[in-house]
């Protein structure tokens, strides 16, 4: 088992079979009730946790939320608050979120806001959730815009069971690999090499451990995204625009965005490994170009919108070499070259 900590508030455990016994909470004397939030494909696992918790003398109730981003809505959150209130939950109690990134985002939001904050414990069950969404304390719901409302607040514990991840269908594993290889591109050449050598068959526990280590290190340095944390957005400026315009899965869109960002890196940061970035992404079965027919003007507009309303204009994360990232301002011509690199325009 590998153990990471962020500050003194968040403990992240990574290992095989960690969740199997259902013993997922750090012991605490004053905890009486656990609200277990989950999504349909992993509801059985969540119920198993609830049984184990009851066996340990706690009250545990399970609520299955709508799948995917349908759970990240204020209407759903309001129902969950009412349900927790009826169960008499107090500030000493715990929200346990079991599921992919959408579920852990909303579970984290509920925990951060119910009674102004109760403990959250997360068990991510997708690769994307394990290496990205569940770590770092960003919680969110969608309000018109994606992730428009949220709170920065760490879970007390994240339990990553690599056996659950090893059983994922290929599609979900591929999608998560985009965020995992992103961690390699920005901070860990060894992680890129693992994917380079074996594609999607790269040893999963090592991939997860390394990707988690990157995210933990970056978040620990800059929790509220004042500076350094922005490097985690590598591939995301164009990626989010493509995700919205082409309705692609997040991981696929980020793959396209990383190819575009690699071109920008060549142009403005002296990056020499653009072709290698493209090759690794292609070897994972992820797209290296946007689907045909996207309107470049719309993509540019979406990119500007995505910049977290940064008043200083459009900025992008670029690589200076594999494993080293920095943020630069980009002009119109450079954005045009980025779009061209993935077939937009
Ligand atoms: N908070 C953050 O920092 C952060 C970072 C990245 C992404 N996100 C969010 O994460 C979400 C995307 O992550 P995701 O793809 O994990 O989300 P998801 O929760 O929508 O999961 C994707 C699908 O996998 C299913 N699933 C979950 N576990 C499974 C399992 N073990 N076996 C089979 N199917 C399973 C889910 O039910 C869902 O249908 C988005 O909402 C995104 O905004 C948040
Ligand atoms: Zn992402």
What labels describe this entry?
345 residues; alpha/beta; seven-stranded mixed β-sheet; two-stranded antiparallel sheet; 11 strands; 46% helix; globular; binds nicotinamide-adenine-dinucleotide; binds zinc ion
Description:
With 345 residues, the protein is an alpha/beta fold. It is 46% helix and 18% strand. The protein has 13 helices and eleven strands. It has helices at 43-55, 74-86, 101-113, 127-133, 162-166, 170-187, 189-198, 204-221, 236-246, 250-269, 274-283, 296-306, 332-341; strands at 2-6, 10-15, 33-38, 59-64, 94-99, 119-124, 141-143, 145-149, 157-161, 315-321, 324-329. Strand 10 and strand 11 (324-329) form a beta hairpin. Helix 10 (250-269) crosses helix 13. It is globular, with a radius of gyration of 20 Å. Bound molecules: nicotinamide-adenine-dinucleotide and zinc ion. Zinc ion is lined by residues 132, 179, 236, 250, 254.
How are helices and strands ordered from N to C? EEEHEHEHEHEEEHHHHHHHHEEH
The outline comes out as globular
Distance between the termini: 48 Å
The assigned structural class equals alpha/beta
Percent strand equals 15-25%
- Report the uncertain regions: none
Bound small molecules, which ones?
A: nicotinamide-adenine-dinucleotide, zinc ion
Radius of gyration: 20 Å
Helical element count? 13
Q: Tell me roughly what share of residues is in helical segments.
A: 40-55%
In total, the number of strands is 11
Strand order of the largest sheet: 1-2-9-6-5-3-4
- Main sheet specs: 7 strands, mixed
Mean pLDDT: 95
């Amino acid at each position: 088992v590998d153990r990471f900590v962020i500050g003194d508030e968040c403990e992240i455990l990574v290992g095989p079979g960690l969740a199997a016994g259902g013993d997922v909470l750090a012991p605490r004397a004053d905890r009486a009730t656990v609200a277990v939030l989950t999504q349909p494909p992993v509801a059985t696992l969540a119920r198993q946790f609830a049984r184990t918790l009851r066996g340990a003398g706690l009250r545990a109730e399970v609520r299955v939320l709508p799948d995917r981003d349908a759970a990240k809505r204020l209407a759903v959150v309001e129902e969950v608050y009412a349900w927790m209130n009826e169960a008499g939950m107090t500030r000493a109690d715990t929200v346990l979120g079991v599921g992919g990134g959408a579920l852990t985002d909303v579970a984290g939001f509920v925990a951060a806001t119910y009674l102004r904050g109760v403990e959250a414990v997360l068990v991510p069950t997708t690769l994307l959730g394990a290496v990205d969404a569940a770590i770092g304390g960003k919680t969110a719901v969608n309000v018109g815009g994606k992730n428009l409302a949220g709170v920065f607040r760490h879970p007390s514990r994240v339990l990553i069971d690599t056996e659950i991840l090893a059983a994922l269908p290929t599609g979900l594993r591929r999608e998560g690999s985009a965020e995992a290889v992103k961690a390699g591109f920005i901070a860990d050449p060894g992680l890129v090499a693992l994917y380079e050598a074996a594609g999607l068959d790269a040893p999963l526990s090592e991939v997860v451990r390394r990707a988690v280590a990157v995210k933990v290190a970056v978040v620990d340095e800059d929790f509220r995204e004042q500076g350094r944390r922005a490097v985690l957005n590598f591939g995301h400026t164009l990626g989010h625009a493509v995700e919205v315009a082409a309705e692609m899965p997040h991981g696929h869109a980020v793959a396209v965005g990383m190819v575009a960002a690699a071109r920008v890196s060549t142009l403005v940061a002296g990056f020499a490994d653009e072709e290698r970035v493209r090759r690794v992404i292609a070897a994972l079965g992820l797209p290296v170009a946007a689907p045909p027919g996207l309107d470049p003007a719309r993509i540019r507009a979406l990119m500007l919108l995505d910049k977290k309303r940064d008043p200083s204009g459009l900025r992008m994360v670029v690589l200076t070499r594999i494993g080293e990232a920095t943020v630069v301002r980009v002009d119109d011509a450079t954005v045009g070259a980025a779009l061209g690199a993935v077939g937009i325009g």
